[in-house]
Amino acid sequence: MSRTARTCAAFALLVGASVLTSCGDGSDAAPTPAPSESAESSGSPSSSPQGGAPTVSNPLDAASLSADPCAALSAKQLAELGLAEGETRPNEQFEGEACRWQATEESLDSVDVTALDNTDGLGGVYATKDQNDYFEPTEVAGYPAVYSGLIDARDSGTCNLWVGVNDQTVLHILTNLASADSADASCGFAADVAESTISTLGG
Prior knowledge:
InterPro entries: DUF3558 (IPR024520). The chain is an alpha+beta fold. 17% of the residues lie in helices and 23% in strands.
């Protein structure tokens, strides 16, 4: 894996959105990103007007993931991450579908990936960061991202990571790791999955 330790957070409530959901076993709740417009930056991110989020300088086309979120990870990547074949499922907190992969080992560990389209991109996550229990900007493979959440359940294995891959699309990576006992484990794994997904998209 390319990353194993990271500071984390779970997610931000966006303007015009207030739907909450349980993460896996219900240890963390996350609202829904709402529309707006932007996301174009990178390595030393500059701020956009949308909530102060960094812009995306090397946008990726993530349209394929809206139709087939399980295409986010190749067979080789799944093997490297210790995940079994994914299953597409409705994402009840957002319009669209997510892919869920279970760990290949006997455990309750899982990770979900959803490509969310909105006019604000990552700016939507930043818009109401003060309403969250924690909010920690980061980068994944050169793309602006943030760990942010209403409830801090990182040490019990739940982590929400949001990555801006273009002006309108944010990747939502949700880990539910029963085997994790630290934020580094749960959010580090989310970052690994995000980096693999970005690689799949050509980033």
